[in-house]
Amino acid sequence: MTKRAFVFDFDGVIIDNEKSWEEAKKHMYLRLYGRDIAQKLQKTSGLDIEAINKLAQEYGSTISLQKLFNEFEIQAQTIYQESPITSGLEDLILLLQEEKYLIGVVSASPRSWIDIVLDRVKWSGLINEIISLYDRKELAHKPAPDGYTEIMKLFAVQPSKTIVVEDSNAGIISAKSAGAYVVGFQQNLPDAYELSGADEYAFNTSDLKSLVSEFGIT
After folding, report:
1. Which Pfam family is an annotated match for this chain, by its short name (predicted)?
2. Which of 32, 102, 164, 214 is deepest in the core (most CB within 10 A)?
3. How far apart are CA 45 and CA 18, in angstroms?
4. Rounded to whole angstroms, how far apart are CA atoms 151 and 86?
5. Cα dihedral across residues 144, 148, 154, 159: positive or negative
6. Are the beta carbons of 198 and 177 closer than 8 angstroms?
7. What is the pTM (predicted TM-score) of this model?
């Protein structure tokens, strides 16, 4: 039987936390950087912490990467404990298991943050592989394809047999560059954020379920 894989981005896909992060970052940036730099950092969805730090330094910040990470760490404890799991996700995971997909996660978030969420759900044991790009320093962050290329290698599955669900344009570029079939996920997007470049778009998990049965059979 042909192997098929279904790989999730994490923030904004498995957990509905993008709006919470946007609000938290707005106040964090203002406190850390002041109004001028904070205004220039308004659109950082899909960027990892190192990329945000680099961008802030280009705008004149002297805040260290460690200081910025510590601030994110404080916010993360609340956000990952309290943000809702994406509606309908459990049914999707169970369908993927029934259809014998390999299930993976590729995220820029630290594994410790991911585990806060997975400890809240019953189906975490059904996920076959998790790659944290924050912890895997040898892998370049999105929009580079490294994370998705790595998980397909671990699964020994062809890119043409891999669905990736992403909610950021950097993530879409990453997965497309790895050769996967990419679905832009719109259910939990921050206000006014527009996805582009995906093979198709899904408004919710019901739309994702409709893809599962027939994908990659031929």
Report:
1. HAD_2
2. 164
3. 8
4. 23
5. negative
6. no
7. 0.92
Domain range annotation of the chain: 5-15+85-216, 18-82
- For residue 203, give both structure tokens: 């408004």
Report the CATH number of the 5-15+85-216 domain.
3.40.50.1000
Q: What residue has token string 């940036």?
A: 29
Helix, strand, coil percent values for the chain (each to nearest 5): 45, 15, 40
Say whether 162 sits in a helix, a strand or coil. Answer: strand
Instruction: Return the CA Rg of the chain.
Output: 17
Residues written for the chain = 218
**pLDDT single digits (tens) 32-90:** 999 999 999 987 877 889 999 999 999 999 999 999 999 999 999 999 999 999 999 99
**Token pair listed for 40:** 């220039």
